[in-house]
Amino acid sequence: MSDVAARIKVMPESPDVDLDALEERLHDILPEAAEISGFERDDVAFGLVALLPTVIVPDDAGGTEAVEEAFAEASEVESVEVQSVGRL
Fold this sequence. Notes:
Blueprint: E1 3-12, H1 19-29, E2 35-45, E3 48-58, H2 65-72, E4 77-87
Antiparallel strand pairs: 1-3, 1-4, 2-3
């Protein structure tokens, strides 16, 4: 089995959210089988910046649902959306 890489858009609740702290929270709540290979940031509008982590999960882990659910429950997160998925 191979690994799957997913780019996920994590939208903070407001422009005032500390993105460095949010990155740390996302690392801390990541499901056991998954890992984050890096973060990018995307300027959305009016000072709002989305985080774009690339998450690696094993193919047999059942997809990215566990990661999406964990990220969505993090404090100061408004929404979570998978932007792309591909095999490594």
